[in-house]
Amino acid sequence: MSEVKRLTAPVPPGGTIGILGGGQLGRMLSLAAARLGIKTHIYCHDDKAPAFQVADRHTCGEFDDRKSVEAFAESCDAVTFEFENVPAATIELIAPLRPVNPGAKALRFTQDRLEEKTFIQSLGLNTAPFFSVASDADARRSFAALGGPGVLKTRRLGYDGKGQIKVKTVDDTVAAITSFRHAPSVLEAFVDFAFEASIIAARGQDGSIAAYDPPENSHENHILRRSVVPGRLSDGQVQEAKTIAGKIAGALDYVGVLAVELFVGRDGTLLINEIAPRVHNSGHWTLEACAVSQFEQHIRAIAGWPLGDPVRHADAAMENILGDEAADWRRFANRHGALHLYGKSEIRPGRKMGHFTTLAPLTKSPSRS
Amino acid sequence: MSEVKRLTAPVPPGGTIGILGGGQLGRMLSLAAARLGIKTHIYCHDDKAPAFQVADRHTCGEFDDRKSVEAFAESCDAVTFEFENVPAATIELIAPLRPVNPGAKALRFTQDRLEEKTFIQSLGLNTAPFFSVASDADARRSFAALGGPGVLKTRRLGYDGKGQIKVKTVDDTVAAITSFRHAPSVLEAFVDFAFEASIIAARGQDGSIAAYDPPENSHENHILRRSVVPGRLSDGQVQEAKTIAGKIAGALDYVGVLAVELFVGRDGTLLINEIAPRVHNSGHWTLEACAVSQFEQHIRAIAGWPLGDPVRHADAAMENILGDEAADWRRFANRHGALHLYGKSEIRPGRKMGHFTTLAPLTKSPSRS
After folding, report:
1. ipTM of this complex prediction, to 2 decimal places
2. In-domain check, residue A215
3. Are B199 and B244 in contact (CB under 8 A)?
4. With an 8 Å Cβ cutoff, are A56 and B54 in contact?
5. Measured between beta carbons, which residues in chain A are less than 8 angstroms from residue B27?
6. Do residues A72 and A200 both lie within one domain?
7. Given an 8 Å threshold on Cβ–Cβ distance, is B34 in contact with A336?
């Protein structure tokens, strides 16, 4: 039996959406809400959180501070989050008080790589072969079963390549799980893909789906460097990517924007790398190339508004401004394009400090979902 | 001898720009600054000012509260304003403390219709014939000199048709100046124009000029209803409009964005209606149709950054959402385009509550200045 969802009245202009997390995604969600006349209240433990600078209200607090989380929820008409590692307990605390989306189900399947991959396969979708690893014995058995190079990843709390080690031998694999202090992990086959892509889609409270054209993505040191749309995906792959996103969003009874990271194999197959239950770095180009960006789309979904048309009106290329590159902001200010800087108080190596998007006339008709 | 300007270091990302005034223009300036990683501090007497919701800091205070204005200025790296009726005394208070732009000269020539028109004519540019009126005798003499229908306007503090009365006879004119309690006014010839247009341009601290393509504007009840770009201006008129803006900005030693409202005569001549020393309602379409909007352009100028390229990448049509129309926000949310709602706490008849912009592919090459 499927869960019965309480239908809630939309958050009107003048209402407040609460956002757990105050990084650049929370900041851009807040700016998008502002465009619609919706206020935001940001909850974050960091007193220098970039999103605080642009929100109507903010609370500096920990996710396990029950009183503080409750007061925050009660000040809002609806609540969402900007990253997938919000503790499930925090969401459970808020759920009886205010509508909170994407819900507990989405978090359960995206906070844990093993649950996630098992869920994806249960939908008949493709992932790289994977094995659960928590001991040296698991490591040996899994590597033998894999029969080739792989990547050991912790099941929880990894991002931007953190908690990932490439392994080429059984000994590598044992060393890797040891370096993770035998934290529950997953050994995945190393995928020799042609290129990477992602699909960003929203699901509204009415079950409608709106998917953006999938960008082609390139990474450096496990951090997104560049997203380009249209990428090298064929029309068939574009449609397949949209179908994948719709299937996942439907199965999760999802409300909001999600991103699915894809490996495009040399034989043309799409393998799912991971699901992010949130707006995504590879969708930042939608700010300039679409009438309704991924950020506004997420706010619309959370607020119970109709989704906007995700069609793009231009080709786009987005590149991240990482670490020290942000010190050279004058160079970006002199280039023709849209500069975004995130208001972070400190430059750190590899840190996402901003991004820069350029548009170009459409080279082929954008896809319609 | 021209005034020597102190060159100031640019406001870097992380710096703060102060904005006098907290309406929708201040709000959109604040959002544009945020995109560049620049914080804003809004100063406004209205404790429900729309810009407060999106700014890093705000001060609720009066313009003549010396202590409050000084504390505000000292918290900022540079100061600007969102509307032309800031008292000159407030700007004079701030000027010794922080760079404030556009400066006192721009305010002097735009706060007073008589000074403004005299200034425009001194540059060899066209205005409708006008006469200074402060008494019944002035009214009679001026109407006789005009020899046809006109509009009596108060010299100061008019906007959106407030402080304006159409006059067809001498008696109308005397009645009009009496209804203004003989406040210093200007009688202008009624212009039978083909259509209205505007030119929005920025001047940087280095004296560089960046002008947007001029939109064609239509008004209802003296309030802007719609701006469309490209409008019916010929290529020659587009260039002439840009020349006009550059001349005015140069003569005012201007820093920031200004708008010049134009009447396009049936014979093709461009008459200047008025100068707004600020971002302008008829430039809101630049948010979607240009890489750098009028709001970002103004922030760049105030912050001492290089101006962005004002070229547009699309045709655009912007319509205002006025008064009660905002109650029907669902209708706009369902249309394809960019919806902007200003977060005003109350709907009032004719009040600017938001706007809606649609883009279309370029129908002709955008002009390059």
Report:
1. 0.93
2. yes
3. yes
4. yes
5. 34
6. no
7. no
